[in-house]
Amino acid sequence: MDSQSNDRAISRIAGAIAEPARTKMLCSLMDGHARTSTEMAAIADVSASTASAHLARLKEDGLITLHTQGRHRYYSLADENVAQALEALMVISQTPQVVFASSAPNRLQFARSCYDHMAGTLAVRLHDHFIEAGWLTGQMAESRHYRLTPEGEQVMAALGLETETIRLQKRIFACSCLDWSMRRPHLAGALGAAFLKMTLDRQWLIKDLDSRALALTAKGRKALVERFGISV
Question: Are 10 and 105 found together in one domain?
Answer without folding.
Answer: no
